[in-house]
């Protein structure tokens, strides 16, 4: 059994999609990050970094209970455990390269672009420009790579596609002000439409919407989401 700790944000969305694609048994456990539930003693034992997603595999190697945190680590762990969505052995280097390109580039730069365009208490033109331009560069790298390709890696659907979907799904928020956010990236847009049409995506979205999370961005939420902004 996989216990899956989630909030309806891009990184947990990746894991939700994998679980639905793989068809493995799991229990979904909501963590309301705007209420600060990620800092509870119980959750910090699962992820000391106080972030979602995280999983606990109650039937790990040797029957041992295993915790895994960080979305890329979770995807790789589950893919290796189930033998699914790893692609061909010959493409292993490519798989790892794109998986970590998403983890170290697309994800964090998208997150910062969203923060400075939507959540920063004061407008900071330099920060908005830096992160928005850099995520546009990342989109360009992906667009070039996906020309003539149906998948990020090789000839099959892999955890690289699953991981990238989680963030490209948020392109309308990342690319604030663009009525068609992927218009300048047609190959990336075509790829996204292909992945987004999968039945497992619909099931993952249903899971992510299955809990009534806190929506108010009040002082409690701001302290929970941006603790470094508040002196202790």
From TrEMBL:
It comes from the Bacteria. CDD domains: GST_N_Ure2p_like. PROSITE patterns: GST_CTER, GST_NTER. Residues 88-217 form the GST C-terminal domain. It holds the Pfam family GST_C_2. This is Glutathione S-transferase. InterPro entries: Glutathione-S-Trfase_C-like, Glutathione-S-Trfase_C_sf, Glutathione_S-Trfase, Glutathione_S-Trfase_N, Thioredoxin-like_sf. The lineage of its organism: Bacteria, Pseudomonadati, Pseudomonadota, Alphaproteobacteria, Rhodospirillales. Residues 1-86 form the GST N-terminal domain.
